[in-house]
Amino acid sequence: MGSLSGVFLCSFIVALSGALMPGPLLTATIAESSRHGFRAGPLLTVGHAIPEIVLVCALFLGLAPFLTGTVTTGTISLVGAAILLWLAFGMFRSLPTLALGKRAPAGVSQGRLVVTGMLVSIANPYWSIWWATIGLAWILQAGRWGFAGVAVFFTGHIAADCAWYSLVSFTIGKGRAYFTDKLYRMVAAVCAAFLTLFAIFFIGNGVKKLFL
Which residues contact 39 (CB under 8 A, 6 or more apart)? Predict the structure, then answer.
């Protein structure tokens, strides 16, 4: 990261590697894009960005030790695991009847999509832990350029999220001739399986932090 352009590029790559992994936000994007089309991805990303801005500010205020504390991380892991299991169970249960829904009217539910993006981000324990550890380390590196460096880093991070989730929305919303109900169920099943694996991992992490 020898320049601000390097900060942006590194941030973009790191964020993209995380966005590509199955998680609650990807699950929501797949589900909402079938009904709302391409706009679901950008709007969910806006919702995702709002708590991230708050969290970055909290890290600057010195809350990183609290967010990475044993009790906090253990609690976040167990609560998040419960939410992930609930999401995965709902997806598995709906697989036999899961189908690409009818397109919603253009002016409907934009605010709901933003709120959904906020909620699924907060519910993901990996999200807060990532920002309090890996994310904080990158922020400190970008901070060598002052506020501009942090702003560029955050812009690169959100740009990667927006690019990936917009691509997913475009594929589902616009490429309906190729994205069949059968393929939709297969993708949903894979996402549900990964959510279950994430939940198992965080249950183990939470138990270890709180009880061992």
Answer: 106, 110, 113, 169
